[in-house]
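Researcher: Next entry: Small ribosomal subunit protein bS6 (Rhizobium giardinii).
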Amino acid sequence: MALYEHVFLARQDISAQQVDALVEQYKGVLEANGGKVGRVENWGLKSLTYRINKNRKAHYVLMDIDAPAPAVHEVERQMRINEDILRYMTIAVEKHEDGPSAMMQKRDRDDRPRRDGDRPERGFGDRGPRPDRGDREDRPRRPREDRA
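Model: Predicted structure:
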């Protein structure tokens, strides 16, 4: 059997329990057709880049699938019919990743600069820090060109 990663987006106005019910429904379809579902990650309600069918947000779900191609085609056919599913994508992979996906991993907070001013000193190109330019009163006035 082939290995797949399957991601689908569900409408924003359905509940998390309804999203879980959709996952169980499609798991049942895959298992009835000789496949099995490994990891299932619910990425939660996220903003969309652009509106899809008047939805600004969607529930994102990732499923690792080990199933024959006809089983995947049947799931995709049922997703096309279901009006709660906005988009889906199935990708064939060589092997499933171990551990959480990139969406579930949190960025290491130590890598980001803190907001309290403890940032590395910013330089002024190769010349070092920006020189103090002084107050405006210290500079000579420019001659004004009168226009005729």
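Model: Note for the record: The longest strand covers residues 36-52.
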